[in-house]
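Pasting as-is:
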Amino acid sequence: MKKPKLIISHEDYDGLHSMIENEEFAPSHALLIDELERAKTVDKVKLPSNVVRMNSTVTFTMLSTQKTFALKLVYPKDTKETGTLSILTPVGSALIGLSIGQEIEWPLGNSKTTIVHIDSIEYSE
């Protein structure tokens, strides 16, 4: 499966790179770096409203199980709130920059993968 196009704001891009640089390197960082490096960056005001950004609540379906989740994509320090998903989880890294309707194949571990489908996105400053 070809990876979908990503679009991300300069602000999120810089914030995520800064977070990675200030933490001890972990395998989860490599997944996020790969996603950031293939993303197109734009000014925050030019980022379409149908794109997953940091602190947006994303409703997505894991097609292998047909389970739907609505989680807020956050920095690791903000995962104390319920209903949040760290950007450093495999699914968190997969979601950033995707648009409603896009799908991405993502590793689950144990050599298994799933397809994640973006259903809707809510964002408030």
